[in-house]
Design a protein that fits this description.
The structure is a homotrimer. By secondary structure, chain A is mainly α. Chain A has one domain. Chain A has nine helices and no strands. The longest helix of chain A has 23 residues. The first copy, chain A, is globular, with a radius of gyration of 17 Å. At the A-B interface, helix 6 and helix 8 of A face helix 1, helix 2 and helix 4 of B.
């Protein structure tokens, strides 16, 4: 179950990388590189922080195949009909939902406490997209978009809470993922936001 | 003593992250994320390079509490009076001073030689701020500001030298930190600088 | 042999970092930092992904000496005659050729399969330059330049193929490096390129 979520997260983050690659007019290999870095970046950083070796995509070919499939599928789909403007944000939101919960669960099974598990969940969910955006010399969505870290934190906490209350992990994961995704969609389509972190600045 | 320096470095780098977050109009969770990445980035990279696991902020809650406290304290302070233009540079300079020396000492206690210890000190001191700036799509201070890597290198060398001469680590650390901080302040307020690395370029 | 290629790669990537440092008007220490990060970045990331410790430049001083030598040699050379516009691209291409093949071979000797070995080769070859460009707030060559990831992938595959066919590693490495370098030079001077990854986008 966790495995299926993880691969689905790889797929949607690879799609987000492919969409950015098209905007940036990369060639096919460049698109594959950007999709791969986006898709495995979050989980790889999590595993480096946890000293969890070997990395899963070294030994399991499904990860790389999923990335190649996502780049091809995005191309087939995006040749036939115009890609909606918000497709990138929605694919990224799906990846954030999936990876945050997967990352939180991985950290819990590695024996981390709740707070660190949620932080590693946020890291897993946000880092791949951040690497994608930094490579394109843009400020990452996690800093630009409101209710991004917030949505991930809420989802990680919800997962810890629900499994702590005895809910089966699969059910807790589905609820937490739905919560992250719903919060992000509300931020994207309804312009929900949180109060800004504001200081009084001297005239610069 | 080392521990107190490390937490104080976390505090001032978290302040620097919060100041950038306010400039970039992030929301509260975004500010926490940026402050946390800035504060633990340097030490985390050092520990990954040294294969030093588990990461200290996984098991010691004081690190995360210090970050939260720094973000809140910056807000309380910055709501009441205008934030001086150079507050960011000064907070960053304080963090660079503390983390460079802490990083150098950690590398020495891990059995590294003097040169690598100083390099890991510079890495510890400069990486958190560099990650902060890269995430905001800006050229890091370590490359933009003169006498930055220079100040860190001088501080690391001074610490190695003084402890090598038999000075107690705490005294050597204080002297080395003061040197880094003084060099950075001179660069910020007096516009001290080193010769540029200059080549003759063909008209581009 | 591998060792000589690795040091030569460190040299040319350090040159590329020094050339960028001169363009960005860094001071001498900043130029050393940028050259060092460019030169050891790719191999360090590869070794972190492979959990291969301790890092080679911790214990072997030739790496750091090579970097210092490259920065000094670039300065001596670039003071006397104008630096050609494409010197940076050519130095980067040389580094990509050397590190891609070295990285592929390191991964093979660590017991990785052919696909992962080629991916780690691309990572070794492309990451140092990508870090250099990201620190300068620019889109990395691996995404901007056509036939970059492609050239690295071709070189890695060629090396795997030729050693698989029984060619001695040194001969296979020379052929594969020449192929990567030739492909990059063709892209730089002849404007060779691959088809773009193109989608139909809604008017943004």
């Amino acid at each position: 179950m966790l495995y299926a979520f993880d691969l689905f997260g790889v797929f949607v983050f690879a799609v987000s990388g492919a969409l950015v690659a098209a905007r940036k007019q990369l060639d096919w290999l460049g698109a594959l590189v950007l999709a791969a870095v986006t898709a495995v970046g979050g989980g790889t950083l999590r595993d480096l922080l946890l000293a969890r070796h070997p990395l899963v995509w070294f030994s399991d070919a499904h990860y790389l195949l999923t990335i190649a499939l996502a780049v091809a599928a995005t191309w087939v789909w995006g040749r036939q009909r115009p890609v909606p403007k918000r497709a990138l944000l929605v694919a990224d939101a799906a990846g954030l939902s999936l990876f945050t919960v997967v990352g939180t669960q991985v950290a819990l099974t590695q024996g981390q406490g709740a707070v660190i598990a949620v932080l590693l969940g946020i890291t897993t969910g946000a880092a791949g997209g951040a690497i994608r955006d930094v490579l394109c010399a843009e400020v990452p969505l996690v800093l630009r978009q409101e209710i991004y870290a917030t949505a991930a934190a809420a989802g990680g906490l919800l997962f810890v809470l629900l499994t702590g209350l005895g809910l089966p992990a699969a059910a807790a994961a589905l609820v937490a993922m739905a919560a992250v995704f719903a919060l992000r969609l509300a931020a994207i389509y309804r312009d929900w936001h949180l109060p800004r972190y504001r200081l009084r600045a001297e005239g610069e």
